[in-house]
Please model this.
Amino acid sequence: MIAEIGLAALWLAAALAVLQLAGGLLALRGDGANEIAALTRPAAVLQGGLVALAFGALLWVFAITDLSVKLVATSSHTAKPLIFKISGAWGNHEGSMLLWVTVMALAGALIAAIERRLPERTMQATLAAQGFVALGFYAFLLLSSNPFERLPQPAVEGLGLNPLLQDIGLAFHPPTLYIGYVGLSVAFSFAVGALITRQVTPDFARAMRPWILGAWVFLTLGLTAGSYWAYYELGWGGYWFWDPVENAALMPWLAATALLHSASVLAGRDALRVWTIMLGVVAFSMSMLGTFLVRSGVLTSVHAFAVDPERGSFILFLLAIYIGGALLLFALRAGAISEGERFSMASREGALVVNNVMLSAILAVVLLGTLYPLLTEAFDVRVSVGPPYFNPVGAIFAFPMLTVMAVGPLLRWRQDRWGRISKEMGLVAALLLAGVVLFGLLAEASLLALLGLTFAVALAAASFLPLKGRNLRRVPIATWGMVVAHLGVAMMLFGMASESAFSKEKLAALEEGGMTSVGPWSVRLEAVEPVAGPNWTAIAGRMSASYEQGEPVQIAPQSRNFWAPPQQTTESVLITRWDGQLYAVMGGSSTDGRWQVRLWWKPFVTFIWYGGLLVALGGVMALVGRVRVDLRRRLVRRKLAERRNDMETAV
Amino acid sequence: MKAKHQRLVLVLLALVALIGAALLAIYALRNQASYFYLPEQMEADPPQVGQAVRLGGMVAPGSLATMPDGITVTFTVTGREDSAIAVRYAGILPDLFVEGSGVVAEGRLGADGTFVADNLLAKHDENYVPRELEGMSEHQAAEMAEETTVGLE
Model:
């Protein structure tokens, strides 16, 4: 019964999306205020509620493990902790697409409910666009990926969830990433709406900015969490593999980062109008492309749940309509949008343009590297593209971008002279030079790692320079947000470069009682014991690890065997210090009765994720700052209107 | 700069950077993409020593041996027409790595003709198969014992 309610809610939501699309379009034909147009906003809000209801129904059938629902039978199991039963609802193709649609409908409902700054016509066009995009994904869900399909006979037992996905990280990683991914649909709809009505104004950018910031914060968190999840769960010791699925999430982030900065220029200075619109279209296009790559089965990874060519073509079809349609509209209308304010190249705007171009270049590099294996496969040549391509080619554009990130915020808006900030630029240059010499003597690292360490230190110092000479208590929160986010980038860079330059790895075959060492750590394998869990058995290697002869720490990494479905996973153990992590993995027994143990000492590796969190925190601060200013502005406007009313009545 | 042409200049700047990025990417991809080899292809036309490539085939039954250090393993990857490549790998073997099953080895050909693997990809579970192994079952299903390809389709 619950499943049927969910399905019915989904169909009703799809019908409301049609109404929303029709209402928005009719409003555009008239003056924006006819009866059907009045239904657009309520349709969007109600739609959000219905889809949330459908998603709740799915969570319910998973929580009670209703085995008459096909999806539950194929991807869940009764012998599983409740939290993984619930998170298993989106650990499969249909459920994750429903999560996608849920986020999209809720975002649409939210703009319909609270957005009041845009001119009514642009708002109607935006809602129509949002309804149109949602409609495609409802169709996909209902016609080819119905999550509520029943089995003719209830299954006796479920097939289980991939053990790699039975992890607390999974409970939060996909929803976080999806909110970011799909949150960008709002920016897309805004961009399409503005293209339709040709009203690209600072007010439009101010209305769009909180949505971009919000989506970007979630994307940042999702990427950070996903990277940490891969790091400790896969047991390979790496935090980023340039896996196509990772790239699928990185590309929207790159586009959103560029969009965030160009929207700021549009909001503050009324420049970069067309460019901002373009990025709004590109950012969500990257989200949809990512969905296609991940969900269509063209790639194989833990993320690709179902290999079904029909679904792949369906998503490709949606992709062609939405991206192609938006780009066509852009090509037709871009010329009609009048040019914004001018600026000199030596200005904040100029620096942001360079930053945007560099981010777009990195995006192009990642996009080509991700699609290349798919292209060559069409000619029956199988290749894989990995770090030897992405790292150096990306770095060619990343380091200039980081340089601009260091000095750009010091420049004034509109027009400035390089001479005015020569002292600060000198400081950054001196730090870079000192860093190259110092780290060059200190570490035998690759050029990229060396540059990374150097830039990280210089950037960290430079991120505080915009605060120089200002009364810290009067600095706006949004500016603090920028400082924190840029500092986070520096920190992340330091973690990555340090991991690459200073990591120590040790592979050893140990008898019980045997000793080995890695970097400053010495590790003794005390004993190997069998362990049993609710749905797995394991061998655990009890080890004591001590840092530079210090107090030993007891750890027990495991090699686990799940039985539903049958699969082995490694449960690595991490010992975190402020200056790095010891990473221990238990292997199997070698033929002569010794046990394989793999150890890494990774100095400052944690800075990668702390940095990511700081970047997200910076985004939150910017969001809070902007929303506060907006609310205050709204209040002032209302007071002015009231006073005018009072005066009129007095007259 | 004449203010009149600003938009044009900006568009050109962006285009030059993006086209530059694309050209650089294509150039780098031709050199850095790691190609996939079957054993018979590697025997007939070996890649350059030290070039990163992937090798995919079946782990020959009875060929898996552990060196005295306890962590380095050697085995032979076989393909069609009695082709066989010796592989050396130092590390923890992937979970479902067994003799007589498919494997993809990432690494490079050493000067002595042994393939030195940095990483081995085996079947993770029935839902997660390295992409090359899927194709291999098409190309080589006839040659391989039926149990080898179970779950690889």
